[in-house]
Amino acid sequence: MPEEIVGHRTQRDVLSRLFHQGKLPSTILLAGPGGIGKSLAAKELARSLVCEHSGSQSQSGSRSEYGGCTTSATCHGCRVFDASNHPDVHWVSVADKELASVESCRELLFSLHLAPLSAKVRVVVFDQAERLTLAVANTLLKILEEPPANTYFILVASNASRLPPTLLSRCQIWFFDVLTVAQIKEILSRQDTLSSEEINALALIADGALEDLDQIRAHIGEWQRLCSAIDEIIGGSRAQAALLASELSKSKDSLPTALKLIRIHARQRLLQYAHEGASRREVSSRLSVFVTNLMSAEYFLFERNLAPVSVLSVIFDALAGQSYAAFTSVTNSATVLSRIAAS
Question: What does the DSSP 8-state code read for residue 305?
């Protein structure tokens, strides 16, 4: 049985309709953030293509579901696909340098000129396609210009902008959105090892994606501590602003994760206060500028290598509202950070 996919119903419904109508393009790019289920959607499409019953009418007159058979017991195509052993499905994990080497890819693409061994079609999936080397991308581009008959290419990418424009022009691009908090909770609830409290916390920290779940889980304690500190700063605590800036500055290795967690919490508070109307307008404005400053701070910290305590002190102090007059617009706040960069 294939793994059940949560979310992306609109994209999958359209792919299903195109599949049943026989109008699937030969090259498809599934694009979107990592950890949201694009690879599962690629497997669902590939399984549909090699299923012996997909698109056919059953004895009762109903057509089989998109994604292949609900059970692989009577379908050789689904059975060998589920065993990751289908001779006409080639899954290339581009992160594996050996599988995605120029020699391996050239050999694979050359073999596509032969007839399928088992199914009526062949399917080639490049997972993490944005990591393709230029040489492999150019080799793939040549075959996409005149694709072999009955062959489908599925590219999966978390950062499609890294693919060569010439390769993108050969793909029909399908964009996948991040998951909702409810959808992430649904996925996490399938794991018996997680408590309801952990599920609720992880659903917020995940920020719409479940890439590196174990790493995310390891930050639950830090998440709670940072949320408490940021809420104190929002309430006007300059002491907490200085303390947090000093604390985070001590470890530059963990700083990117900490800033990500702070940004997630700040966005959630911003949405909460925005819905509370005029009574929270000033705080909402400060939070809006703060989120923008966080993104600018990452450039100054990790590209310009400025002292973390200097940059963080400025943006945390502004969030506390004590120097808010100088931060009443995004332009002014960015100017202050620029002055730090020039000093």
Answer: -
Percentage of residues in the chain having pLDDT higher than 90: 41
Tokens 């059970």 correspond to 71
Report DSSP state, residue 9. H
Q: What pLDDT, in 10s, does the model give residues 301-317?
A: 888 888 899 889 989 98
C-beta pairs of 282-286 under 8 Å, 24+ apart in sequence: 282/321, 282/324, 283/234, 283/321, 285/328, 286/234, 286/318, 286/319, 286/321, 286/324, 286/327
pTM comes to 0.75
Query: At 65, which amino acid appears?
Result: E
Q: What is the DSSP string of 131-199?
A: G--HHHHHHHHHHHHSPPTTEEEEEEES-GGGS-HHHHTTSEEEE-PPPPHHHHHHHHTT-TT--HHHH
Residue 57's SS3 state is strand
Q: Which burial class, exposed, middle or buried, applies to 51 when counting CB atoms under 10 A from its CB (0-12, 13-18, 19+)?
A: buried
> Could you tell me how many residues make up the chain?
343
Q: What tokens appear for 328 in the block?
A: 């009443």
272 Cβ contact list (under 8 Å, min separation 6)? none
pLDDT tier for residue 325 given thresholds of 50, 70 and 90 = very low
